[in-house]
Design a protein that fits this description.
By secondary structure, the chain is α+β, with helices and mostly antiparallel strands. The protein has 2 domains: about 170 residues, 2-Layer Sandwich (Ribosomal Protein S5, domain 2), CATH 3.30.230.10; about 130 residues, Alpha-Beta Plaits (2-Layer Sandwich), CATH 3.30.70. The chain is about 35% helix and about 25% strand. The protein contains 10 helices and 10 strands. The strands form 2 sheets. Strands 1, 2, 3, 4, 5 and 6 form a 6-stranded mixed sheet that branches. The radius of gyration is 20 Å and the shape is globular. The protein starts with a strand and ends with a strand. Bound molecules: cytidine-5'-monophosphate. The site of cytidine-5'-monophosphate has 11 residues, from strand 2 and helix 5.
Length: about 325
């Protein structure tokens, strides 16, 4: 009987500490300049490779009717991985292409809310790529895996690295910067989500806000300083001042006004920084102590502006 190997792994979420849209590409995608930050809140995955049964990719996610198995990013990641591996081995004249496509069952436990801008689907997909890369003995170089990842989704390359990274172009240029790990993060996610394509489409109808590349390059290079204490890390991040902008926030607030109300509620409750992540609809606030984060979390939970929201207290990784 064909042996089954099962890998248990997790897939952390992210927030965008800031996100600038710098241009539109001929294929309709946008050139981005953003710092992504991994957070300690995850989906869980069990990936079983091999065994009897048809050589197909199966995605299971109990209790989630919104997950369409062969449209899911995990499916896309495994599918792209296998077709690239087949092509690579065929080009090297190494192996019969059919023998390297074992049955692959991906079992997902979703915790990261969808349509939140927290990268759940992309992180799951990156975890699948990492598992397959390990299972097949690292057939792809880091660069090849990065290219494969961006073809699965714009945020996927970041999750191959995690931590704190500057991400540029569509998302494929990833540069790790000094870690802002350990900062308490409060996530407040309205029940209504924002569609990423709709949000990007809305930004196309207006002139893009000015992007001062030199100012950002200076700020991001200052972020490479190592800081020991949480308050020093937060202070360093906050030196970004007016550069700390998410260009997708305005169109997202137009579509889900509660996003703007939550940001105000978090600031009123004492958060020194609160903004939307990605294309929303989740909002995050950063703190230099767990006590402060807990206090703001308790206040916001009773605030009518955060009615029906998912509230998550976690930290940066
Ligand atoms: O690549 P991904 O599927 O994550 O992107 C979702 C949608 O977001 C794309 O279909 C596109 O409309 C938009 N997008 C974009 N520019 C980016 C990333 C995403 O326009 N850099």
């Amino acid at each position: 009987m064909d042996k089954i190997e099962t890998y248990k792994t997790s897939a952390n979420a992210k927030v965008n500490l800031f996100l600038r849209v710098c241009g539109t590409l001929p294929n309709g995608y946008h050139r981005l300049y953003t710092v992504m930050q991994e957070i300690d809140y995850c989906d869980e995955l069990l990936v079983s490779i091999g065994g009897e049964g048809p050589a197909e990719i199966v995605v299971e996610c109990e209790g989630r009717t919104d997950i369409i198995p062969n449209k899911n990013l995990c499916y896309k990641a495994a599918d792209r991985f296998y077709s690239s591996l087949r092509n690579k081995l065929a080009a090297e004249g190494k192996q019969d292409s059919r023998s390297i496509f074992p049955r692959t069952v991906i079992n997902l436990t979703k915790n990261i809310p969808s349509e939140s801008g927290m990268g759940g689907g992309s992180s799951d997909a990156a975890s699948v790529l990492i598992v397959l890369q390990e299972h097949f003995g690292n057939p792809f170089t880091e660069e090849e895996l990065g290219k494969l990842a961006v073809n699965v989704g714009a945020d996927v390359p970041f999750f191959l690295y995690g931590g704190t990274c500057l991400c540029e172009k569509v998302g494929e240029d990833v540069t790790p910067i000094a870690s802002l790990a350990g900062l308490p993060v409060l996530i407040v996610k309205p029940s209504e989500g924002v569609s990423t394509p709709e949000c990007f489409k809305a930004i196309d109808s207006e002139e893009l806000p000015f992007f001062d590349g030199d100012a950002y390059a200076g700020y991001v290079s200052s972020l490479t300083e190592e800081k020991d204490s949480l308050s020093d890390k937060l202070d360093l991040f906050l030196t970004g001042g007016e550069l700390l902008v998410n260009d997708l926030q305005k169109p997202a607030v137009n579509s889900v006004p509660q996003i703007g109300e939550i940001i105000t509620a978090l600031k009123d409750a004492g958060a020194s920084y609160a903004a939307m992540t990605g294309s929303g609809s989740a909002v995050f606030a950063l703190f230099d102590s767990e006590e402060k984060a807990k206090e703001v979390s308790d206040t916001v939970k009773t605030d009518p502006r955060a009615k029906d929201c998912i509230v998550i207290l976690t930290k940066t990784v």
